Amino acid sequence: MSLRRRLLLGLLAISAVLVLTNFTLADRFRSVLLERVDRQLADTASRDVFRLEGRRLRRATGAPPTAQDETLSEYFIAVGDPSVGTLVQLSSALADEDQPPPRLARARIAAHLTGRGEPALPFSVPAQSGSGTWRIVAVAEGRGGVTVVGLSLDELESTLDRLRLVQVLGTLAVLATVGLVSWWMLRLGVHPIEDMARAAGSIAQGDLSGRVDHPGGRTEVGRLGTALNAMLERIQEAFRARQASEAKVRRFAADASHELRTPLTSIMGYAELWRSGGLREPSELDDAMRRMEQEAKRMAALVEDLLLLARLDQDRAPERAPVRLDEIVADAVRDAQVVEPDRPIDSASAAVVVEGDEGQLRQVAANLLANARVHTPPGTPVHVVVAADGGVARLTVADEGPGMSPEVAANVFERFFRADPSRARAGGGTGLGLAIVEAVVSGHGGATRVESELGAGSRFIVELPVAQPAETAGLA
Ligand code: ADP
Questions:
Q1: Measured distance CA(317)–CA(234) in Å, rounded
Q2: DSSP code, position 93
Q3: What's the gap in Å between 369 CA and the centre of ligand 1?
Q4: Residue nearest atom 23 of ligand 1, based on CA coordinates
Q5: Residue to mutate, 255, 305, 343, 371, ligand 1, most ligand atoms under 8 Å from C-beta
Q6: What is the predicted pLDDT for the residue at 55?
Q7: Residue partners of 152: CB distance under 8 A and separation at least 6
Q8: 78 has which bridge partners?
Q9: DSSP notation for 396-433
């Protein structure tokens, strides 16, 4: 059942209970008032017997009416013997012309007649004319005599009519208020929820860019809407990230295949040339074999790098052991100088311990120094610095080479990115060197960046968290 229907049913039930309570109360009130009238009548009827003297009311004892009798003026009093003749009306209620006397049928009097001292049997009769009602008590006086005492119920009925009017108006007012409140509640609470359900439904059809409209603020509906939109935002973000990562994987696979195809094509070309008898001279054959070996080495290096990257992607948490960063960088500088003795490389290092995988960190230093060698003219100076500052270990490899444009600098850490593919490939680079640096460093909780300007050299900066003192124990 919908929330709206439940709310309406609840309100209807409350209204029904309200109306029922009102009617029960009115009924009960009437009974109480009637009981009081009955008691008054029984009381009056059980007092002295009255008789008529001329037009005057007299007590049966012959005494003139007392001040107390005057209060009887509102009563209808009649005496007589109903079986032989009409009753004689005594009371002053007679004098009131607006108050027509009761229509007294003998049979009804006889049916409700009680003896003096017995509990009275009050009954109601209509007035002789008009719409009034009387409450009557009849008491037997012995020797066939009867005293009939009556009280008009007109006032009681008009009081009750007024009460009923107040009740009806009150009930209507309460119902109108309840109606207004429920309309307001529906407008404030249920309508926005319905709108949100509709919007959410269309979003569920696949339109992730949709958002639900909601009143905002601190209402439950507002908070629900805000949460729903935040959730959608995150789902959309996750979806975008997944799409981007799928595209990246596809591009990576395509790039890797492309990179492998180039050396394969040239190896196959030399093999073809040899099979078709194109390599007759031993020197030609030597040259072809040397080129084939070169290409095979390039492929091996590429596969090696691909494997390393795949491992880094898979397992982002490297082995954790204290490593002296300055020492492994010093080793890499020595290696670089062996490869190219003519290049001036100066290094300034402080003892810095980081935590991580030594093999991977050696590769970082080697790749940065190899780039400085490969992408700058021979003899270009290189400056290497290892330092620690505020819990951050910093390795800087700066060269005085040609530098990079901002567009190139922004992309150097991308896989297979090369500023000048033909030249870089000829130099044997795989285009994965800096991607590996980036993957290793971020796997170690660090960051990599490059500062470079065309003509002003490049500066690669690797930052890693310094190992905690407890972890460096016994190393320094
Ligand atoms: P590779 O060196 O195998 O081409 P890298 O990922 O190591 O691949 O480098 C990507 C590109 O960044 C290089 O092709 C080159 O264009 C540029 N690059 C890297 N290091 C330097 C440097 N020290 N000076 C100028 N350009 C550089």
A1: 26
A2: G
A3: 11
A4: 372
A5: 371
A6: 47
A7: 74, 76, 93, 99, 127, 132, 133, 134, 135
A8: 89, 148
A9: EEEE-S----HHHHHHTTSTT--SSHHHHHHTT--S-H
Distance CA 50, CA 73 (A): 13
pTM confidence score: 0.57
| Tens-digit pLDDT profile for residues 166-189 | 988 988 898 888 889 888 887 777
Residue 226 neighbours by CB distance under 10 Å: 14
Residue nearest to atom 12 of ligand 1 (CA): 412
In three-state secondary structure terms, 232 is helix
* Chain-centroid distance, C-alpha 103: 74
Distance of CA 284 to the CA centre of its chain: 76
Nearest to 438 by CA among 420, 464, 407: 464
Beta bridge partners of 139: 114, 147
- Residue-wise pLDDT tens digits, 241-271: 999 889 888 988 888 898 889 889 999 999 9
Using the atom order of ligand 1, give the atom closest to the CA of residue 413. 6
| Bridge partners for 137 per DSSP | 149
Residues with beta carbon inside 6 Å of ligand 1?
371-372, 374-376, 399, 401, 404, 412, 417-419, 424, 429-435, 458
**pLDDT, average across residues 128-157:** 84
DSSP state of 71: G
Is 219 or 336 the better-scoring residue by pLDDT? 336
**Hey, is 219 helix, strand or coil?**
coil
Taking the C-alpha atoms of residue 374 and residue 65, their distance in angstroms, rounded to an integer, is 140
Cβ 144 vs Cβ 81: under 8 Å:
yes
